[in-house]
Amino acid sequence: MAKLRPSIEHVGERLRGAKSVVVLTGAGVSAESGLRTFRGATGADLPPDMRALWKEFDPQTLATPEAFEADPEKVSRWYDWRRRGCLAAEPNPGHTALAAMQRGVEERGGSFTLLTQNVDRLHHKAGSTGVVELHGSIIVWRCAGCGRRFEPGAEPFERHPAPSGCRHGAAAILRPDVVWFGEALPEPAIRAADAAVEECDLFFSVGTSAVVFPAAGYLLLAARNGAFTVEVNREDTPASGVVDCSIRGSSGEVLPWIVELAFGA
Ligand code: OAD
Fold first, then answer.
1. Which residues form ligand 1's pocket by a CB distance below 6 Å?
2. What is the distance of C-alpha 234 from the center of its chain?
3. How confident is the model over 62-95, as pLDDT tens digits?
4. How far apart are CA 176 and CA 180, in angstroms?
5. Burial letters for 42-61: b for 16+ Cβ neighbours within 10 Å, e otherwise?
């Protein structure tokens, strides 16, 4: 029997009645803020400077501990270039809608957890609270030796000082506080995500290609636990065939619409 395709209106109703909501976001949510995704459409509709990063750069030489060990300067320069792009970016209507979604759910006594694979801090900038950063943050850097964290200013990498109090001083090796391929996700993030996904009755997967685990596994876990699952993406992903409702479109258009349907805001 063909699977019924719930409408966006139905998703709005689900959101209005949900007791526990989890949203997982990926790079697509920040695309409308001018930040490049890693995969997905290189489409003719996109300007060349919005091409997916992993179509232009090799993650093996930039996003692994081995790459950093082999060429720390190259890796740091690349991440610093992206860091400065993130600092300059502003939240778009998709980010704002997620902050409004959180307020709507919490004002009605429900719980809301935003899990993000994004390292750009745009959800924070849009007003979301308690954001679980599964892949860390590119805005924060740390000494690879002693783990001290700091937030560099707007100046490029060559001029970042070591974090204050770092015992390595000028010899400190600075790295972005992101999770690289082959590294474990931060323990507190895993604990928070596991607990939220375990109890949620509504799960959104937004702007993610749903191919990078363990993050992509949260949708499967939520579905197995009986949550109603929704995907918002510009194109099909491996999650599209799994979710209860797959909505094709940009998060900056679809999310405000869902929030308006649910809470009239
Ligand atoms: P990807 O770049 O893999 O996927 C972005 C997804 O967003 C694609 O499926 C696009 O179709 C979709 N998309 C693009 N623009 C959109 C829009 N305006 N609205 C809705 N969807 C849109 O990004 P992630 O899934 O976040 O990890 O990637 C996961 C991880 O892989 C990243 O955190 C990063 C990367 O390698 C590390 O660097 C460790």
1. 26-28, 31-32, 37-41, 52, 59, 63, 117, 135, 179-181, 207-209, 212, 232-235, 237, 250-252
2. 16
3. 999 999 999 999 999 999 999 999 999 999 999 9
4. 10
5. eeeeeeeeeebbeeeeeeee
Nearest CA to ligand 1 atom 2: 38
Q: Is residue 162 over pLDDT 90?
A: no
CA distance 168 to 179: 22
Instruction: With a cut of 60, say whether residue 265 has pLDDT above it.
Output: no
pLDDT reading at 2 higher than 70: no
153 burial level (CB within 10 Å; 0-12, 13-18, 19+): exposed
Buried b (16+ CB within 10 A) or exposed e, 199-214: ebbbbbbbbbbbebee
In ligand 1, the atom with minimum distance to the C-alpha of 53 is: 2
User: Known catalytic residue: 135?
Assistant: yes
User: Do the strands 202-206 and 174-178 form a parallel or antiparallel pair, or are they unpaired?
Assistant: unpaired
Q: How far is it, in rounded angstroms, from Cα 61 to Cα 17? A: 46
DSSP bridge partners of 205: 24, 231
Please write the tens of the pLDDT for every residue from 98-134.
Answer: 999 999 999 999 999 999 999 999 999 999 999 999 9
Q: How far is ligand 1, taken at its centre, from the CA of residue 28, in Å?
A: 5
User: What is the per-residue pLDDT across 3-48, written as a single tens digit (0 to 9) for each?
Assistant: 557 899 999 999 999 999 999 999 999 999 999 999 976 555 667 7
8 A C-beta contact, residue 202 and residue 20: yes
Which of the following is catalytic: 10, 124, 135, 160?
135
Report how far residue 178's alpha carbon sits from residue 70's, in angstroms, rounded to the nearest whole number: 18
State residue 1's pLDDT score: 46
